[in-house]
Amino acid sequence: MDQNTVLYAFVSLIVLLISVLYAALVIWSPQSIITYSSEKKYRCRRSPNKPIPLPYIDDPATVDLSVIVPTYNETERLPKMLEPTIKHILSLPKRKTEILIVDDGSADGTAALALEYAKKNSEIEIRVITREKNSGKGGAVRHGMLHSRGKRLLMVDADGASRFEDLELLWVALDRVGGKSPDHAAIAVGSRAHLVKTEAVVKRSFVRNLLMYGFHTVLRVLGVGHIRDTQCGFKLFTRKAAQQIFPSQHLTTWIFDVEVLLLAKMLSIPVEEVPIEWHEVPGSKLNVVTDSLQMLRDLLILRANHLFGRWKVSQSTVKVVPS
Ligand SMILES: Nc1nc2c(ncn2[C@@H]2O[C@H](COP(=O)(O)OP(=O)(O)O)[C@@H](O)[C@H]2O)c(=O)[nH]1
Ligand SMILES: *[C@@H]1O[C@H](CO)[C@@H](O)[C@H](O)[C@H]1NC(C)=O
Ligand SMILES: [Mg+2]
């Protein structure tokens, strides 16, 4: 065989390999996120039966803070989370706050329970959004972010694993990175990194801790190694940051936090990490084995889509929806 033939075969093989990888990527990547028209409406105390249209993130802010709570089968844990949350919000009456409970197609009556809380509390607007199908935590958080009214937007887990009062730590951290000016994009994220050497984490199973170290290694390769705790369910965004990030989010699974932080990095949005309190709450829906595999798959999909330029951030993705 002459040299040219070898070279030709080699190049063909590479081209074939890349084509196969690309085809696999197209097949494995999540479909674009569908929003049903019923999901663009909410129920609340004033209108518990007739849903009202929601605003969009590009509309101007009309409250100071939106608290976004994704829920799936949370009748057990939600009350324990909502009570201290409402108490804290009422202790700061000058800050106009709304709570958005984004129920992700629960089958246990979570939405009805949330609506009961909405009816009981006249001082805070509690909005209940019902998703038609379960789409994963990432899908629910994204949906809430895109349909909130706040100058600042907080995502928080429904299980009460974080102490809601720690919001104030995130609040001042966001001020520090420039979030005070209304047109500034900035993020403050809760972090449990300081707990790693303490009981709360050491008590967790060996498998879970091993997975944690593996996960951190993958994150470093991905380019978000600078964030010590990407997965904490307590993150505060300025409206500007939410406008720039969430329309470009593709992943709706557990790993969406990593995509959000990667998008922030690509958009040069500052991220401040703030140590917060945390306690494991029983009843987690995370399955260590299957969800870890799913996370790894989604991280590869995320990286590959950015490499091939299929997923990118651009200002034009921030679509303006006429009201
Ligand atoms: N919308 C939505 N939220 C979910 C889903 N699974 C879990 N969550 C929410 O994600 C948050 C954290 O869930 P949890 O099961 O405690 O996971 P962990 O804290 O990571 O172990 C809670 O607010 C859950 O209700 C889901 O499929 N859809
Ligand atoms: C949610 O609840 C429904 C009905 O109780 C059940 O069929 C489903 O498996 C539950 N899902 C999870 C993840 O717990
Ligand atoms: Mg939890």
TrEMBL record:
Segments passing through the bilayer: 6-28
CDD domains given in the database record: DPG_synthase
Cellular localization per UniProt: Endoplasmic reticulum membrane
Recorded topology in the membrane: Single-pass membrane protein
Enzyme class, first EC level, given as a word: transferase
Residue ranges annotated for the Glycosyltransferase 2-like domain, each copy included: 66-245
SUPFAM superfamilies, per database record: Nucleotide-diphospho-sugar transferases (SSF53448)
Pfam families in the record: Glycos_transf_2
Primary location group: endoplasmic reticulum
Recorded metabolic or biological pathway in which this protein acts: Protein modification; protein glycosylation
The keyword Glycosyltransferase appears for this protein: yes
PANTHER family with a match to the protein in the record: DOLICHYL-PHOSPHATE BETA-GLUCOSYLTRANSFERASE, GLYCOSYL TRANSFERASE
Similarity section: Belongs to the glycosyltransferase 2 family.
Protein's name in the database: dolichyl-phosphate beta-glucosyltransferase
Biological source species: Thelephora terrestris
